[in-house]
Design a protein that fits this description.
Blueprint lengths: L5 H15 L1 H24 L3 H9 L1 H14 L11
Length: 83
């Protein structure tokens, strides 16, 4: 009684597929995978202590340089929904 059998899980899976549809579940899975990959890349990038101390010293100079470069060019984009 404490755990569900394989038949219970199959019925739950069938109901989830009927409610959400396979396309929406596929998109959810790919979005989740991309988020996990981005998180892992972010953790790997920020794990080096020598990079962290070097970034801390020149952070303000880099921000002001990036800001002035951003002021010179403006990119106008239009967002479209995926169909």
């Amino acid at each position: 009684m404490g755990s569900f059998s394989i038949w219970h899980w199959l019925v739950v899976l069938l109901i989830v597929v009927l409610v959400f549809g396979t396309k929406k579940l596929k998109n959810l899975g790919s979005d989740l995978g991309a988020a996990v990959k981005g998180f892992k890349d972010g953790m790997a990038h920020g794990s080096s202590p020598s990079e962290a101390s070097a970034a801390g010293n020149g952070a303000t100079a880099q921000v002001t340089a990036d800001k002035s470069a951003a002021d010179k060019t403006t990119i106008d984009v239009e967002a479209k929904t995926k169909s």
